[in-house]
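lol ok so funny story. i was supposed to be doing the assay writeup but got distracted and ended up predicting the structure for this chain instead. priorities right. anyway since i did it might as well share w the group, maybe its usefull for someone
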Amino acid sequence: MKTKFQETLSRANEVIFRYPMILAMALLASVGAICIAETERSEITSYIKFTICSCLGISLMFALKMLSQRIGRELLLQVSGIIFLIGFYFILPDKKNGFTEVYAYIIAVTVLLSHLLVSFVPFLEKDRELRFWQYNKNLFINIFLTAVFTGVLTGGVELAILAIDKLFDFNFHDRLYRDTFFVLAIFGSSFIFLLFNDKGLNNLEKDGTYPVVLKFFTQFILIPLLLIYVAILYFYSAKILINWQLPRGWVSYLVLAYSVVGILALLLVHPLKEENAKSWVKIFSKVFYYTIVPLIVLLFTAIFTRILEYGYTEPRYFVLLLALWLLSIVIYFIFSKKATIKFIPISLFLFGAFALIFPYLNAFSVANRSQKTQLIKILNENQLMSANTINFNKKVTDTIRNEIADKFEFLAERKQNEFLSTLLNEKDQAELANNIAAGTFYSVRYDIQNKFSDVNVTVKNRAYEMNRLVLVPEKQVVELGNYQYLISFHRYSRDPQKLNNDEFELTDELTDNSSLKLSLNSKEEVDFGPQIIKLLNENKNKTGNIKVPEIAMESDLGKYHVKLVFSEITREKYSEQDTASIYYESVYILIRLK
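and the output, tada:
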């Protein structure tokens, strides 16, 4: 027992001294996750950025460690990795509501690239194909084992804490369970994974016997499923030809799924191609890429059907890029006599890097230009431009109105203020600038929708429109009067606001409890919900945009007198049976000392 314990400690010490940077990143990611859970919302953004970069650093530092074990220069590679992570930290937004879907794509693609880097970076030299396969096979197995071990360890430790808590009446705080989970799930899993990797590259790339379980899974489960899948896709292709109709948009995802899973199956059985006894593997390897060729035609047809009609967005760009990558894979493996499986992750890495950083043709530049073009096209086709700005008084269908509003929201999220401002008058420009600065991009969409005064509602949307009431004040100017201070809250940004060392917080439960509470220092509060409900009930038999003299209400709150002024209030529901949703886009709070 003593010997086993010493062996375990010895291996743990080896892991710590062999992989210090990876473990440091895992520890920092754990600390960051704990800080996110325990920090006030107004201060959380820096921790989110820190945690994202630390998590990214785990895979990046592992990739650089594998490369250093091949070529040396470990210190230089580690410093390069740290510089990259610091730069990535400053790329991310400084405000929580700045984390739009654009940054979600940037983070997701960067994480994918870092993992792809792990898969091939030690094998850029030629003539290492079998070792490349063994290396990735062992990584795959170690990841699976790490998931199992981490799950058991985390569950066991959490249950042990619970048992001590309940049996001995320690009354542990809930955060102990949460913090333990973060440490074991992030740092613990990284440590276990490194334990399985032993001494690194030399052990991972060693020749080994082909796993029997993997052979059974691929031969009797994965490949038969692929055959069923491709049969369905071919029948669907035949249906398209017979009916002479364009393919549905989601078929592109099915084709990509079949192709990616098929390529994975080929990678899993790669060493068996050389065994004469495994003729089925050779047949599958040769036939697979030819089966994709007709599906690629279907794939590009489906993609361009959507792009030509609605323009590029980042998801459509990435689907098109994957289609081009798939086409390059098919061409390479069909026509190359010395094809290597290393081409698969390396080419995907290059395509992904292109999508992120290539000037003018990256995903975000293409999407912005395309949606600007689409917006101008819609405005011109419907003759909505007057004196170089949008004429919101002209009659439009609700479909056109919604398309315009959607594109405004899309471009606002991507900070295309200058372009959008050219389409609006000065008053609307200021409103747009305020929403973008506050990060309330959803407000941009509703503001644009509400500006159209003459909307022809289609039959499809009539029931919804009939159940939608928008109260709009006749004057949008907020008069300060004898109030000393003004603060604002937005629908999707209600972080507490500080004033004279006091903290104001707005709690919105209008839909659920008809409550909108303004609290002072979490001690005193006033509920404006009943006044809002009363105002809506006064207009309950009306629909559409209804102008009212003002939407304002006031009350004393501690040592202050406060007045709430709303830009608009909306009540809507999809059917009579549904609960009505009540919300506002922005509210200004005027404050004075009593």
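The first strand starts at residue 385 and ends at 386. DSSP finds 21 helices and 16 strands in the chain.
back to the writeup now i swear
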